[in-house]
Recover the amino acids of this structure.
């Protein structure tokens, strides 16, 4: 066992390197991988494994994703890099109609053990076409697993689990977490589909994922100083999501606030809130971004951000039975 301090990007690179050492079928392809990736999440891999396994591609997202699907069907375990999730819009046919449906449409004759790295979220000063969160789109898509790591340890464990699975995984790292540092135990092997309870409270359950988890934790600390005791749950995997953990905690506290950086309208928080409302007597609320493009100007970008202050105020309003939301 080795525990070391890594960034979120380094943890992803370490997990991929381990998977490539353990399984010669694991390959990576995408733009700029040879120089370590845009955020350093492939640093050192070309030198370690060579250009046949760390493949620099042309700038054509549909070609990259289509090649990855073909590689998976031919018996490899490809990791496809899209740089940011926004660029995956150019590869939606390959994702939605090929990767996700192949196993079903061909009666299990073909499997697509493909990991699609699609970084999501607000990216400071990068504006509307580089700051989107599409996790609800993919959670709505039958045939794929959807993962949203929030910490370096998560990025290590969840990427390893994704690479060891047999189904396509939409792997949604966050654009502003790459430099986040934390301890990583490389002996851990956490499965996908299991939530983490980061804080146990008595009055309120806050459920979140990805970068919003950190804002939720900060909000819970601020609320505690006011005498409001909140649980914080990091879903981690959005499909399959850990219904049992959320239902148990929400039923215990009697109040649920689901928080996400993505636009609130039709966001995945609605699925969590509806499920809890259907199965418990819990009072539920959602907090997400307004339904606007993310602006380049700092004041407009701030309008789209869900920070600890907004989460804390939403929690207070929920407990006072006042309306909450965008």
């Amino acid at each position: 066992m080795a525990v070391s301090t890594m960034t979120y990007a380094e943890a992803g690179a370490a997990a991929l390197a381990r998977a490539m050492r353990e399984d010669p079928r694991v390959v990576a392809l995408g733009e700029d991988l040879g120089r370590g990736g845009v955020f350093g999440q492939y640093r050192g891999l070309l030198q370690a494994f060579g250009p046949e396994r760390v493949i620099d591609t042309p700038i054509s997202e549909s070609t990259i994703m289509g090649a990855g699907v073909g590689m998976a069907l031919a018996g490899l375990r490809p990791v496809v890099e899209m740089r940011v999730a926004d660029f995956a819009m150019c590869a939606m046919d390959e994702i939605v109609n090929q990767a996700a449906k192949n196993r079903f449409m061909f009666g299990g004759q073909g499997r697509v053990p493909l990991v699609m790295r699609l970084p999501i979220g607000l990216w400071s000063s990068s504006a509307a076409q580089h700051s989107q969160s599409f996790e609800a789109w993919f959670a709505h898509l039958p045939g794929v697993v959807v993962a949203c790591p929030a910490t370096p340890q998560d990025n290590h464990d969840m990427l390893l689990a994704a690479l060891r699975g047999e189904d396509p995984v939409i792997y949604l790292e966050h654009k502003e977490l790459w430099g986040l540092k934390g301890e990583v135990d490389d002996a851990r092997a956490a499965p996908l589909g299991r939530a983490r309870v980061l804080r146990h409270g008595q009055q309120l359950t806050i459920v979140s994922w990805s970068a919003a988890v950190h804002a939720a934790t900060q909000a819970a600390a601020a609320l505690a100083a006011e005498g409001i005791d909140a649980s914080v749950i990091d879903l981690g995997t959005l499909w399959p999501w850990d219904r049992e953990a959320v239902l148990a905690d929400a039923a215990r506290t009697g109040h649920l606030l689901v928080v996400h950086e993505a636009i609130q309208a039709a966001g995945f928080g609605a699925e969590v809130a509806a499920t809890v409302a259907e199965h418990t007597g819990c009072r539920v609320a959602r907090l997400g971004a307004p339904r606007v493009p993310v602006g380049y100007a700092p004041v407009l970008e701030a309008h789209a951000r869900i920070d600890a202050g907004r989460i804390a105020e939403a929690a207070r309003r929920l407990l006072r039975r006042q309306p909450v939301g965008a």
